[in-house]
Amino acid sequence: MNHTLPNSYRQGPDPRGRFGPFGGRFVAETLMPLILEVEAAYEASKKDTAFQAEWRRLLTHYVGRPSPLWFAERLTAHLRKDAAPGMGAKVYFKRDELNHTGAHKINAVLGQILLAKKMGKTRIIAETGAGQHGVATATACALMDLPCVVYMGATDVERQQPNVFRMKLLGAEVVPVTSGAATLKDAMNEGLRDWVANVHDTYYCIGTVAGPHPYPAMVRDFQSVIGTEAKAQMQDAEGRLPDVLVAAVGGGSNAMGLFYPFLDDASVAMVGVEAAGRGLDSGEHAAALSRGRPGVLHGNRTYLLQDGDGQITEAHSISAGLDYPGVGPEHSWLHELGRVQYRAVTDDEALAAFQLCSKLEGIIPALEPAHALAEVLKMAPAMPAETIILMNLCGRGDKDIFTVAKHLGENI
Amino acid sequence: MSRIATKFAALKAQGRGALIPFLEAFDPDRDTAMAILRGMPGAGADLIEIGVPFTDPMADGPTVQKAGQRGLKAGASMAGALGMVREFRQDDAETPVILMGYFNPILSYGVARFCAEAAEAGVDGLIVVDVPPEEADEIAPDAIANGLDLIRLVAPTTGEDRLPKVLSATTGFVYYVAITGITGTRSASTDDLAAAIPRIRKYTDLPIAIGFGVRTPQQAGEASRIADGAVVASALIDGMVATLDPQGRATPATVPAVLDRVRELAESVRQG
Fold first, then answer.
1. Is B212 left (phi over 0), alpha (psi -120 to 50) or beta?
2. CB A321 within 8 A of CB B64
3. Who's near B253: CB < 8 A, 6+ residues apart?
4. A396: closest CA among A68, A103, A89, A9?
5. Dist CA A262 CA B117 (whole Å)
6. What is the rounded CA–CA span in Å between residue A223 and residue B155?
7. Is A198's CB within 8 Å of B72's CB?
8. Do A28 and B154 touch (CB under 8 A)?
9. Helix, strand, or coil here: A96?
10. Residue B253 per-residue DSSP state
11. CB distance from A161 to chain B under 8 Å?
């Protein structure tokens, strides 16, 4: 029967943009009319078959979707070696690192840039941390002939030079942000400031499932192509649903994309993996759900890293893409409901998983999914051999080889 | 009648608008900010706006951002800002004080506790930049229960369809954000303001103050005549910063420099 389950986890957000108490539209009045305009345009686009067809065409022929589902056979065998008899879950990867531009970000960027065009906007701005969302936005803007300005913390500009150069090649203007700690949070502040000053012609392309409503829902919906594909692919491969989904969580877009289509499948457990940085008790981490508390930042109520006075504190992670003191509001809700378990993995654990995946599967993962993989390495040996873990390998590691080399003491 | 309503009524009787200078709490340190606050009414401030520092002030330009960073470095907190108002009220029972800031420090303090303590300290109104009418129920009930005015922002982007919604929930006065942009970056033209204010008057009888981009005495005078008041922030902060020593500390010139500027602004506003 095609009806909505009364207790569905998939009904959020409500008309106010809330997931339970989280989300909302905490923006200055100058932006509010535009936020409402984006919401109306997005709602209309859902029913616009030409819009949907164009987005699907781009996903197929430009991005290269569907991304494959890969049974990580050698990794599975490796984990079973040290497991008790009959133990060691089968590990599958959803390979969104094979997308054009090397990560899942492009899925939602193409949707948003199409929306911006539909709204008649002629200038695109974006924030970026590691540079993946900036590269994806610059790519889409090159394809669709729109000027693109990317705000990037000056600290991140220094440590992500290859992506800065990529964005420039693609024709984008990269603006280093020196306010605050000069990382992703400050880049987002600057993006919002630009938008306030240029509301008449500019669309702000947000990279994750955060920000004011409708962004968390919109980015999630576009990214849900990941979970929808994976569900069908797992049926083909195994004839059933996976037992556990695992994904890294910074803002949380790749995780929402994988989880959302499975939320009402009660047999499927879900684990979101935050960055524990130098350790959850070190004070240097990016684990907003594990160690933060609810607050309001960047347009939404969600779990945040903050001090006792409500001042936002700096996040730390080896992965620039997870280096953010907040998390998408829907994750905060799923966390409080207990539908998704959120755990945290340290820089060192992610580095070890990064190397293991490279050697065993011939896939160099990005440091973000390396966090998810580190959690898989802990979980799989304790699960029965007939169980299945599906992990979102949401980005490739080319961008990270300089960071990893430095940590391994190699000069390249 | 509240202090804010009383003040605007008195100014109307005098036939002039209000000068509303801004200072950031604890910028560059508590004692200096306190001396500036205390000196403002004597220099001609009609109402005073105190900024509560926040790490991520997304509607503010570089000048106010840096003011907030200096304030935080000097130990600013919500309790500290309320403490300043409490001390100010020992000598001044009349000048309305408005706290301007972002929602998270209030949320962290506890909305009900904050509103109760703010009223008790002598705060008259609140401007919470990132709480639009759509989220008003987060703070309005506690603000109203404690007699605090909730002053709303109206922007050039606020269309006719939206004005009734924004204005219906406003008390005290209306804060017209003169530009689509952040604080201290550019200024609206007199013509733009002359067109915008009557548009708002159609929907409210409340006084209207103009802020964002009001820098010079001339601009403050014009704004206070076109509307009912002018808010000056970044220009005062810039003037203060010019007096700091290379380590960013206050010098003997700091407090007089700010108050002299307030005097110049006040003079222009009073030339009516």
1. left
2. no
3. B243
4. A103
5. 47
6. 34
7. no
8. no
9. helix
10. T
11. no
| ipTM entry | 0.96
Residue A28's nearest CA partner among B196, B144, B102 is B102
Q: Does the distance separating the beta carbons of A33 and B58 come in below 8 Å?
A: no
Alpha-carbon gap, residue B196 to B203, rounded angstroms: 12
Amino acid present at A36: L
> A200 is written with which tokens?
């008449």
- Mean pLDDT, rounded, of chain A: 96
Q: What burial class does residue A185 get, using C-beta atoms within 10 Å of its C-beta: 0-12 exposed, 13-18 middle, 19+ buried?
A: buried
Interface mutation target, options B56, B64, B82, B168, chain A, most CBs of A under 10 Å = B56
Residue closest to B166 by CA, chosen among B210, B135, B196: B135
Mean pLDDT of A82-86: 96
Q: Helix H segments across B94-246? A: 103-109, 111-121, 140-145, 163-168, 190-201, 217-226, 234-241
The first and second tokens of residue A377, run together, are 């390495």
Read off the pLDDT of residues A14-69 as tens digits, 9 standing for 90 and up.
999 999 999 999 999 999 999 999 999 999 999 999 999 999 999 999 999 999 99
Q: Confirm whether B49 is a catalytic residue.
A: yes
Q: Of A123, A177, A189, A124, which is closest to residue A152 (Cα–Cα)?
A: A177
| Rounded-to-integer distance, Cα A125 and Cα A298, Å | 15
Q: Measured between alpha carbons, how far is A402 from A354 in angstroms, rounded to an integer?
A: 13
**pTM, 2 dp:** 0.96
Is the CB of A200 inside 8 Å of chain B's CB atoms?
yes
pLDDT reading at A1 higher than 70 = no
The contacts of residue A58 (CB under 8 Å, 6+ apart) are: A110, A114
Which residue in the set A24, A33, A309 is minimally distant from B77, CB to CB?
Answer: A309
Instruction: Quote the CA–CA distance of B164 and B183 in Å, as a whole number.
Output: 25
**Alpha carbon distance, N-terminus to C-terminus of chain A:** 58
Q: Does A3 touch chain B (CB under 8 A)?
A: no
pLDDT at A316 over 50: yes
Q: Where are any strands of DSSP class E within A257-356?
A: 269-277, 293-297, 299-304, 341-346
Kindly state the helix (H) or strand (E) to which residue B24 belongs, with its residue range. strand B18-24
Interface of B with A (CB under 8 A): 54-59, 61-62, 65, 72, 77-78, 102-109, 129-135, 152-159, 162, 166, 177, 179-182, 185
Q: What is the pLDDT of residues A219-241, one digit of tens each?
A: 999 999 999 999 999 999 999 99
How far is it, in rounded angstroms, from Cα B216 to Cα B197?
20
Contact B178, B227 (CB under 8 A): no
Closest of A230, A272, A224 to residue A248, by C-alpha: A272
| Alpha carbon distance A137, A170 (integer Å) | 10
Respond yes or no: is residue B29 known to be catalytic.
no
